[in-house]
């Protein structure tokens, strides 16, 4: 982490345009998350959704056990804004399940890119890659949401693999396909008829985040295979869930740098790209969250 933060001196390798582009991609990623929560909460107003997400996300990135504290803060702010408590809990749970399920499924999309081989890519082709990922992931998600057979097959396959790899005295996993279908139906019941919009927003949230990392690499002249970068990106998101440090601080820096190096990025470029990506995805939301909490407190204290 110290090595990554120490690379701030090389920030001049990024043009002003590339920095603005990465900032815009992160704003787009946040906007997709706001749209998803707006659908799940069935909220009539946008400000409570935006301010609560920014504040809860910022707290989750700095507090020990931040995920639980961040969710609790967002829940409190939403309830203070007039949303029903029970429906808010169900909506936030469905959002978290859907967001994490999509990032776990994204590595499957890296397989065609890996089979295609190495191709040098610029910023324009990077954007095209993001669009392809968005449409393919949305189509796959729509199939899994609207039909039972593919999701049940995935559950049976995962259950079979897990049972073959289990320890000798461990209990075999059972009824995983049925559990997946029940959780899918629970998410659909929460999202209602606008589940297609919610699915597109979820995929867009990760697509824009992934494009931020690709843009950071392309801006410093590094063009690794996008499939390998996608695997590194998904691995970093899983590392961010480790509760030892807030927001996976340190784990993500070390893991993403190492995985980018395995993807063919030079050591120095991997550290610098990781710094630029985390600058916009981790550090920038912190002051935004503080400002959002202040705005919410002022609105709550105002008469009426």
Structural features:
304 residues, mainly alpha, 14 helices, 0% strand, globular
If you had to describe this structure to a student in words, what would you say it looks like?
Helix 2 crosses helix 13, helix 8 (149-165) crosses helix 9 (176-191) and helix 11 (226-239) runs antiparallel to helix 12. This protein has 14 helices and no strands. It has helices spanning 2-5, 16-41, 47-62, 66-80, 85-105, 110-116, 123-146, 149-165, 176-191, 195-219, 226-239, 251-262, 267-283, 285-301. The protein is mainly α. The chain is globular, with a radius of gyration of 20 Å. The model has no long low-confidence stretch (mean pLDDT 86).
Given helix and strand content, the structural type is: mainly alpha
* Radius of gyration from CA coordinates: 20 Å
User: Using DSSP, what is the number of strands?
Assistant: 0
- List the total number of helices: 14
Quaternary organization: single chain
Beginning-to-end CA distance, first to last residue: 46 Å
Question: Main sheet, how many strands, which sense, barrel?
Answer: none
Q: What is the residue-mean pLDDT, rounded to a whole number?
A: 86
